[in-house]
Amino acid sequence: MASGAAKTAAITIIGGGIMGAVLAYQLARRGMREVVVLERETVASGSIGRATGGLRQQFADELDIIFAREGLRFYRQFIAEMQAEAVPAFPPPPPFYQYGYLFLVSDDEAWQAMQGYVALQQRLGVPSELLTPMEVVARWPGLSLITEDLRGASFCPTDGYTDPAAMTRALMGAARRLGVEVYEQCPVLAIQTTRGRVQAVQTSQGTLATPLVVNATGVYAALTARLVGINDLPVYPLRRQLYLCEAVAGLPAELPMVVDQATGFHFRWRDGGLLLGLPHQPSPAEQAASRALETTAFDLRLDPGVWPQIERVIPRRFPALAGLRLRRAWAGLYEMTPDEHPVLGPTEVEGFLCACGFSGHGLMHAPLAAQLLIDYLITGKSSMLDIEQFGLHRFREGRLLPATRLL
User: Which regions span the lipid bilayer (predicted)?
Assistant: First the structure.
């Protein structure tokens, strides 16, 4: 898109992360033409390139379980279809390491709740199961767990993990082959509206006339919404940190994502080493800065206090991991909403739609979110879930969706 050139698009997606890639691919698969993706840097250069890559169906509420169940189904099908193509797809989709998620529970109240969560998951078709501490030790002896205080565990064998950045690039590559135009290094400067309707998007590479814009800009979604005069989109950043360490001998080759629910500490294989994470509570000042969208809230510098917390947590449950040698560490940003559910669908500005606010679950939840949006665009409603419940208006009306955090 040359600077100053006149160009049109039927649908313009702002954001080249997982949501933008899945949406572009599904639109093209459904036969939609003149789909354009605008990415201010490069595809998968934002939060998805810094994510853990987990694909789990073990959630504590029905909406999250349904989103994740359908997301996992989508990725398995996408990988299979790309592998079956006569000409190898480029870039190829990454493997999905379907080794499961293992949640270790040590609190009586949490164990009682977990039994209810697993029952709900099973009712929704997720093959999760409850395990005793001895069953955990027998199935994964290499974990060398301290089990004295364990009440039990939940495990789902169809959960797992993948490379989220590689998956995003593979999806965008497939979308391109189906006719989607993707412009990188193309920040959006303004969105032109007339009488409350989207008319065009002004970028660093020229102006794009378009009647539909999808805001898939992740942690920057609230700032993008301001371009059309929406100043109350409650999407804000939350920093998380990941640590890649040297491998530990004796751990299972098919290591599940292991989660100590009491602390949130979790780990899995990655690049021949161990990827570790520990959710940490931001300070009140950090929370206020995030809600206010201050510049510091988007800072990716590491908090030096998190690694010592991990070093204290590890020996209490995983003595075999003590003394890990750190390779590298990095920070990423979740795009949070007040109820930790996404913002999907139309807004008061006609032609400006949202697909953001996935609260750390974007990789898992983007496929169904894209399906709901496309159904809405084609028929005015969505069949699997009512898209209306995810609208921006729920925050204005104080009708937040119920949510229970498992991790």
Answer: 6-25
pLDDT tens digits along 304-338: 999 999 999 999 999 999 889 999 999 999 999 99
Give every strand in the sheet of 236-245, ordered side by side: 129-131, 152-156, 101-105, 257-260, 265-270, 273-277, 236-245, 326-336
Class of domain 11-51+165-235+339-397: alpha beta
CB within 8 A of 228, min separation 6: which ones? Answer: 191, 193, 198, 347, 349, 352
Mapping DSSP to helix (H, G, I), strand (E, B) and coil, where does residue 215 land? strand
Is residue 303 within 8 Å of residue 310, measured between CB atoms?
no
Q: Tell me the CA end-to-end span of the chain in Å, nearest whole number.
A: 42
Two structure tokens written together for 201 = 């998007």
Q: Which CATH number fits domain 98-159+236-336: 3.10.580.10, 3.30.9.10, 3.50.50.60, 3.30.420.40?
A: 3.30.9.10
**Token representation of residue 315:** 């020996």
Q: What is the mean pLDDT of residues 233-261?
A: 97
